[in-house]
Amino acid sequence: MTIQLFAQRFLFSAFLLAFSALGHAEGQVHIYNWNDYFAEDTLSGFQARTGIRPVLDVYDANEILEAKLLAGASGYDLIFPTAHPFASRHLQAGLYQPLDKTKLPGLDKLDPAIMTSLAGMDPGNAHLVPYMWGTSGLGLNPDKVKAALGEDAPMDTWALIFDPEKAAKLAGCGISLLDDPTEVFSAALAYLGKDPNSLAPADLDAAAELIKAAHPHVRYFHSSQYISDLANGSLCVAHGYSGDVLQARERADEADKGVKVVYRIPREGAALWTDVMAIPKDAPNPEAAHALIAYLLDPKVIAAVSDYVYYANPNLAATPLIEAELREDPEIYPPAEVRARLFVPSERSERELRTLNRLWTRLKANR
Amino acid sequence: MSHRHSHRLSRLLNIGLPYFWLGLFFLLPFVMVLRISLAEPTLAQPPYTALWEWVEQGVLQIRLNLANFQLLREDDIYLAALLNSLWVALVGTVCCLLLGYPMAYAIATAPERRRILLLMLIILPFWTSFLIRVYAWIGLLNANGLLNTFLLWLGVIDEPLKILHTQMAVYIGVVYSYLPFMILPLYANLTRLDPTLLEAAADLGCRPFRAFLRVTLPLSMPGIVAGSMLVFIPVVGEFVIPDLLGSPGSLMIGKLMWTEFFANKDWPLASALAIVLLAVLVVPFVLMQRLQQDDEGTRT
Amino acid sequence: MSSLPDRRLLESWQDPKAAPYVRIERLTKKFGDVYAVDDVSLNIFQGEFFSLLGSSGCGKSTLLRLLAGLEYPTSGRIHIDGVDVTDVPPYSRPVNMMFQSYALFPHMTVEQNIDFGLRQDRLPRRERAERIGEMLDLLKITPLRKRRPDQLSGGQRQRVALARSLAKHPKLLLLDEPLGALDKRLRENTQFELVNLQERLGTTFVTVTHDQEEAMTMSSRIAIMEAGQIMQIDTPTAIYEFPNCRFVAEFIGSVNLFEGKIVERQGDQVLIEAQFGGLMRMRSFQPHAIGTPVMVAIRPEKMRLCETPGGDGVNRLQGIVEDIAYLGDVSIYRIRTGSGLLAEMTLTNIQPRTEQALTWEQEAVIEWSPTSGVVLTE
């Protein structure tokens, strides 16, 4: 008897749960974003303004987002993939729905240069709205680099990693590389003075040789571990994303243990990446997703996000609202001559990408 | 009559339920993975091709792609990763056994009241997320982490030991994380051991250590096997520990699978890898069972 | 003390020149505040079949474990074959034990179990094989030698356990409830086998049992234990016929106890004024003072129906048959006296039941002879 009763209650509550889960079509928007990629009050502000309840899940790798999208029925209304190569791939696979631009009045304030670049993969900017952009360069501990290489050592160069002589001296204080073959190969190609997007076998071989030579001096390949290690002083050179390195700087300042962290865009050139917003084709509540994009196009809102995450945003109307310290930092809002040295990763076919990834596994394993 | 009927029903349930469970949670997923492993990757949702389709009326076309298994055979990196994973799992299991056996033995022979406390201490770490516990080891093993700071302070070492991002750190992480899986079955086994057997051994002239070797150890074999399986099998596929603590060159099958599945979006190859791993782990199981059956056979 | 006077040969325990094989001196074992064994002194001689008899918790098993070395005493000494073994660990004692649960090694065959102790002695392989064969033969378990304990019946296991404990040819074998796990029928057969075996091997056996019948059948001597102390040590006959105290008298078999007071001594007999009213005349070698309160213990089968009433009325009771228990070979009669005392009398059923003289509610007079019981003071 009691077991039956229990089973009934259990079923009943399961039904309740199921219904409440279905209820999201009404006034909820399910967001899948990088962790720590909104300002603290961004979402509460959105709910206050629109009455729509935001539900946030976070990820720390594009691959995780991609796997969920590809499996289908992810249940998310708005996602934040990196444009190259992820969003472009998703567009090819037809995973996104076109935007209703009548609901997005703030679009015209976005940086035309970035929009044009995105239009290359998304004709007419029909699906993607840029959210933040940044570079992948070098996170450095200047004191330790100087201690290893001398007072007047240049900081803004990939040579710190790819010049075996320098790397050997820096290995002791710690070098880390992003665990991402596209990033590392284009950095190596840039250092060699080649086209960072080159697919020519000779170029790739040269880059691979360079990476192999650097390998013994690399402590690890990881795409987020370096943040805390830069901040606590156990790394001196980290190949990393601009905002992440600046976050490490912030943490080091807070800890106040005398660890200094700087971000440098290498003079040989660095990758420029853009994270975009997109609505999955099977989004349960595209209406609410549009409302959230419109909210994030508000210059005040997006300026606050930049202040929090240390990334530049493409909203020109927002630039004056950003804290001066950030706005005037040449590593975040680089001047024109530096921007000219940035490159956007080009498209690669699936086959090329897999070959590259498998080559990468082999390189990392030193085989 | 109705009594007999309900008896038969309950017997059917007793036998049927485990099979139903296995079918639902093992066989079905396995068939799904097998299916994907025979497909080709494609940029779509889901990212693999269908195995069969109706091309025209009455014609069913089935395409089985064996290229994935072929690639696994041809590219030696997969074999290397598999062997390395098996080796890491073996070393980890042996370390867990060497460390866990004395602990399980100590708990099993402790006074009843203290046993519960000791068991609690073994289980307690499970109340924290596995990921956080592995992360904590980064803080402990770092060049300026707790361990090095302490050793430097003691003056035992002059410069920090490089443990983090080495194979050593992987073993530490594996032993730390999986030790309870070794201890618990061993403990369960050792507490059931009849203490008068040891008295009998002593009475027959056997010194305590020899009694341990000749009585306790062979009788705890089922516990050793169960514990070793519980450690060995998950460690072979372990991803988190080598990823967070291991050296950049550490080649583990779990990491490779991650790359194939997430970075390469090559679900078929990742599935093929999973199938091969399963086969590698199932074969020794089956062999062991055979041996046991043979053993039974010779006895009766 | 109370021993049969008409024995021709002196048994080893009666011979003042014989050296005891096991000498236990003032042995005490405390578990916490509980005295499991309380100041026990005891001598056991070569070739004896010695039983420790008592109810559960009386300390008999602890005493056996102390002999085996599985427990160490709180105080007192144990000597075996003239050597003080009090602090010697079990694996170095010249003693083997058969455990109540048999404690056979479940992962070993019968053969390997028997071999276990031999291997510890580093005996050569040939000798071990011979010894195993001898044990298998001795206990008639040769066909079972390749089996494991879980493939044996209870009786077979008992034999294997016995074989294992005898394999090393110990001078002293300790047996903890050796027949306790067997069913009644098997137990009776095995009792005799065990005695035969002991006589054949000449090994000194010390067994622990709670079953008085078992102890009576098998033992050369019995020690009755209670609350950690030994109440009486004697041959089965002496224990039965001449209990030295009320506890032993009541523990073994059934007994009638009549309280009274010594009024007169007449040679080796005393005259006792019984509480139930009459007079009792009993043989007693003890120097009781006149006026000592005593108890007269008489076994029911020592009672008889009085066929010639009258006389001096000594050692006689009159009452009504209240209860008859017919057991086939004998019947037990319960007779209630006028003073309310209940006496028990066992009569052999010589005649078929229907022709017996005594029936319910019948008036009966029963009597006993002065040598048929003992006079107890405690």
UniProtKB/TrEMBL annotation, chain A:
Binding positions for spermidine per the UniProt entry: D180, P181, T182, E183
GO BP, sorted A to Z: polyamine transport
SUPFAM superfamilies noted in UniProt: Periplasmic binding protein-like II (SSF53850)
InterPro entries from the UniProt entry: SBP, Sperm_putr-bd
GO CC, alphabetical: periplasmic space
Molecular function in Gene Ontology: polyamine binding
Segment forming the signal sequence: 1-25
Superkingdom in the source lineage: Bacteria
Subcellular location: Periplasm
A Pfam entry, by short name: SBP_bac_8
Swiss-Prot/TrEMBL keywords: Periplasm, Signal, Transport
Family as reported in the entry's similarity comment: Belongs to the bacterial solute-binding protein PotD/PotF family.
Task of the protein: Required for the activity of the bacterial periplasmic transport system of putrescine.
PANTHER family: NORSPERMIDINE SENSOR, SPERMIDINE/PUTRESCINE-BINDING PERIPLASMIC PROTEIN
Annotated protein name in UniProt: Putrescine-binding periplasmic protein
Provenance organism: Thiobaca trueperi
Origin organism lineage: Bacteria, Pseudomonadati, Pseudomonadota, Gammaproteobacteria, Chromatiales
UniProtKB/TrEMBL annotation, chain B:
Residues that span the membrane, as ranges: 12-38, 77-104, 116-138, 168-190, 211-236, 267-287
Name of the featured protein: Putrescine transport system permease protein
Topology in membrane: Multi-pass membrane protein
Gene Ontology BP terms: transmembrane transport
Gene Ontology CC: plasma membrane
Domain ABC transmembrane type-1: 82-288
CDD domains listed in its UniProt record: TM_PBP2 (cd06261)
Sequence similarity: Belongs to the binding-protein-dependent transport system permease family. CysTW subfamily.
Keyword entries, A-Z: Cell membrane, Membrane, Transmembrane, Transmembrane helix, Transport
Record carries keyword Transcription regulation: no
Annotated localization: Cell membrane
From TrEMBL, chain C:
Domain of life: Bacteria
Pfam families to which the protein is assigned, alphabetical: ABC_tran, TOBE_2
Gene Ontology terms: cellular component: ATP-binding cassette (ABC) transporter complex
One function term, GO molecular function aspect: ABC-type polyamine transporter activity
Residues annotated as transmembrane: none
Catalyzed reactions: ATP + H2O + polyamine-[polyamine-binding protein]Side 1 = ADP + phosphate + polyamineSide 2 + [polyamine-binding protein]Side 1
Cross-referenced SUPFAM superfamilies: MOP-like, P-loop containing nucleoside triphosphate hydrolases
Sequence ranges assigned to domain ABC transporter in this UniProt record: 22-252
UniProt-listed InterPro entries: AAA+_ATPase, ABC_SmlMolc_Importer, ABC_transporter-like_ATP-bd, ABC_transporter-like_CS, Mo/tungstate-bd_C_term_dom, P-loop_NTPase, PotA-like, Transp-assoc_OB_typ2
EC assignment: 7.6.2.11
GO biological process: putrescine transport
Enzyme kind, highest EC tier: translocase
Keywords, alphabetical: ATP-binding, Cell inner membrane, Cell membrane, Membrane, Nucleotide-binding, Translocase, Transport
NCBIfam families on file: potA
Role description: Part of the ABC transporter complex PotABCD involved in spermidine/putrescine import. Responsible for energy coupling to the transport system.
UniProt subunit comment: The complex is composed of two ATP-binding proteins (PotA), two transmembrane proteins (PotB and PotC) and a solute-binding protein (PotD).
Protein family according to the UniProt entry: Belongs to the ABC transporter superfamily. Spermidine/putrescine importer (TC 3.A.1.11.1) family.
PANTHER family for this protein: PUTRESCINE TRANSPORT ATP-BINDING PROTEIN POTG (PTHR42781:SF5), SPERMIDINE/PUTRESCINE IMPORT ATP-BINDING PROTEIN POTA (PTHR42781)
Designated name of the protein: Spermidine/putrescine import ATP-binding protein PotA
Organism: Thiobaca trueperi
Source organism phylogeny: Bacteria, Pseudomonadati, Pseudomonadota, Gammaproteobacteria, Chromatiales
Gene for this chain: potA
